[in-house]
Amino acid sequence: MLAIGEKLKRLETFYAQRDALEGEKQALVDQVLSPEVKKRLDEIDAEVAAKAEAVEANIAGLEAEIKADVLAHGESVKGEGVQAVWSKGRMTWDSKGLASYSESHPEILEFQKTGEPSVSLRRT
Predict the structure, then answer these.
(1) Predicted TM-score of the model (pTM)
(2) What is the rounded CA–CA span in Å between residue 65 and residue 83?
């Protein structure tokens, strides 16, 4: 069985291979595109980017309105293709305060639950 450090090194090698393949693909695409086509593609990207920015602004504004409306409404609303799901607020506790309190009231510790640890992978 490989050590974790060795597995991480192996995973980074796979990430690098994936990145290299993307670069290789782009290089091959660039070889078959004439300068005129590349220029036109850049123009299309710029044209669509401006439109996409406007659409994203519209989406963000309407999402904020819908969220505020659903919060005021107090229950989920189902539309055609999109559903606004209302969830009640989560109850939280002041962990530091409860830890301090448990020093003089250890009986409270029977209500303490500790979740399972988890791992996320991040590229550095």
Answers:
(1) 0.62
(2) 14
pLDDT tens readout for residues 75-97: 999 999 999 999 999 999 999 99
Q: Which residues contact 12 (CB under 8 A, 6 or more apart)?
A: 123
Tell me how far apart the alpha carbons of residues 122 and 8 are, in angstroms, rounded to a whole number.
11
The residue ranges of DSSP E strands in 2-114, in sequence order, are 77-78, 83-84
Contact assessment for residue 86 and residue 71, using Cβ atoms and an 8 Å cutoff: yes
Q: At 58, list the tokens.
A: 């519209």
Regarding beta strands 83-84 and 77-78, do their DSSP bridges make them parallel or antiparallel, or are they unpaired? antiparallel
> Do the beta carbons of residue 74 and residue 88 sit within 8 Å?
no
Burial 22-46 (b: 16+ CB within 10 A, else e): eeeeeeeeeeeeeeeeeeeeeeeee
Provide the percentage of residues in the chain whose pLDDT is more than 90: 85
Residue 1 is predicted with a pLDDT of 64
Rounded Cα–Cα distance for residues 105 and 99 (Å): 10
